[in-house]
Design goal:
Two copies of one chain form a homodimer.
Chain A (H helix, E strand, L loop, with lengths): L6 E10 L4 E8 L5 E7 L4 E6 L6 E8 L4 E5 L2 E3 L6 H13 L1 E12 L10 E11 L10 E6 L1 H9 L6 H12 L2
Parallel strand pairs in A: 4-9
Antiparallel strand pairs in A: 1-2, 2-3, 4-7, 5-6, 5-10, 8-9
Helix pairs in contact in A: 2-3
């Protein structure tokens, strides 16, 4: 296998915001030339596939400003400084939906945007769900619904679900059956 | 269904680079408060799932600097100003792999990073493939390989394939069978 490694020559912070940490590096390409690489440094995230005993799933509907519309997506959130992946998944599920789960299983690590972000998403399957009350995270506006799998496949097919991480979790569930 | 729309109050260009166009907007939240939204404006992209008659797929291996390692991924690329989605898919397949396809079918529209990017990816299935010669795009370093589907599922399962868009295309193929 060929080695296409690009070696860092310089690195510059372009923007460090509330959410985005943008960097611009100068690199040495495999053929010796120089090039610029712009990318987002991301702390990583988790996603939870909450599966009820009857096979239905818990999904959220929220507004995504970048796209200027509402999306259906599974519970997810960023890993906070030093927090364990599984602890993040458990926290996000509770904060966003009011549910806890007795059974947790790590399914996949996903890289959503390898062209311009360091983000990884750890996908967990959560079962044996119980509703313990919805506190809600300050400043988060969302609603949850329990969706039969047949409807989820239909929403994938007709484009009503188009969020990549959610598509992966649902297709994983379909192929696991 | 609740309306969680966030209304733009102001919009500012933070960085406009070779690849990344970063914006920071001030918005009015559904509860009347104000918040900041940082995001990437992206022109959109295409991905191609090149499927051979024997069921194997054409996949690429290239270095992704943001993650500092090589990735296996399907042919993909950005839509250039005014270019048609299908024309982009045909161009990227030829430039990156040297293949053309007689049969093209649009499968899905995917949003890879709804939390902080406007990117959409149009996924095409390409069949009846013929190799017409690899010119290569200037400054693109990659190698291609023909992968049996059984091996592709194994690479999904063991994490050797972790690129989100590629996982979606492969799982789509698996569920379509």
């Amino acid at each position: 296998m060929a080695d296409f490694t690009e070696h860092q020559l310089a690195s510059e912070s372009i923007f460090s915001g509330r959410l985005l940490d943008v960097r611009k590096d100068k690199v040495r390409l495999p053929d010796g030339r120089e090039a610029a690489r712009e990318y987002i440094v991301h702390p990583g995230a988790v996603m939870v596939l909450p599966l009820f005993d009857d096979g239905s799933i818990l999904i959220e509907r929220q507004y995504r400003y970048a796209m200027r519309r509402h999306f259906y997506e599974l519970p997810a959130g960023k890993i906070e400084g030093g927090e364990d992946d599984l602890a993040t998944a458990q926290r996000e599920l509770l904060e966003e939906t009011g549910y806890i789960a007795q059974s947790w299983r790590h399914l996949l690590t996903i890289h959503p945007c390898i062209a311009y972000s360091t983000e990884r998403i750890e996908l967990y399957l959560a079962r044996e769900l119980s509703f313990v009350g919805h506190t809600g995270e300050d400043g988060e506006f969302l609603e949850t619904l329990q969706l039969p799998q047949t409807e989820a496949w239909e929403w994938l097919r007709n484009g009503k679900i188009s969020d990549a991480k959610t598509i992966i979790a649902l297709l994983w569930l379909k192929t696991a059956q």
